[in-house]
């Protein structure tokens, strides 16, 4: 007998059972505990569980928020939607119940280790049904699956069978690193990019410090975070200070914050998750007044590349932004999909039209190139 349940905290599911469903995940049970404790504004957390004869067989994180339909739009399209929002406040906002997480790299459903591949589509169907029922209990019409891997046929098939629409989401940048040195990596890049990076490396650089505790510099870290967030075209959530300190505390050796100093001035920071297989870039914040003189983004990039090479880490996962730079820097891109359905047929039909204009590849040529690669 299969049953489902939705919980308000990941602590309702035993740590070992959750992590068994996500073997080797950096964003594991402890990560979600840190996220909960951070109390990110405007988000409510949900955790969906599927049981078979009382035994946990599948889980997924979910969240509730108010979603702006133009969240993934940038450039001229963003300016247009902002004018529309000023004319009709709230016209682009809908209550949203989404499987996935605003602070996880991708949406993954987890399955108990003894669940065979052939049963996973059925369990995904139950997760989708559980999401719909939980959303109904909160009076929310729009249910979505955020950033499901585009190469996962189970997600696509299950969502289509449930009547969900689909559209491309922001692709994830990935840099494979089969190189013996940073110089060998640079040699793999285009001539102009290679020359530019080598010139930047010859210039004076900031002092680099690796930290697992940033309590003493937290106000400066948050100043850099807020300044970077203000300049960003694409941002779904606003992270409080407790997110950064909580992730570092809960994940121990698997989380680190890299600080960049010019004399006694903190000019950039980079929160990363890392294990023996991959390094995940979670957030890079920097002071724009120092960025050009010290090439802070590229310095941070090459610092992470060097760390991966020195520690035999095969993959640098670099997130869902800055596609123009990442194309130059040799990244590959893993496609993600957004699936959604509104229970109101009229609204659902309207969203079919709206999605034509809010596709992320409509407004950013570099993003379009990254999506086309996937």
From TrEMBL:
Q: Does the keyword Transferase apply?
A: yes
In the record, what terms sit under GO molecular function?
A: 8-amino-7-oxononanoate synthase activity
State the UniProt keywords alphabetically. Answer: Acyltransferase, Transferase
Domain of life, source organism: Bacteria
List its EC numbers: 2.3.1.47
Question: Which positions, given as ranges, span the membrane?
Answer: none
Acyltransferase is among the record's keywords: yes
Q: Which residues form a coiled coil?
A: none
UniProt protein name: Putative 8-amino-7-oxononanoate synthase 2
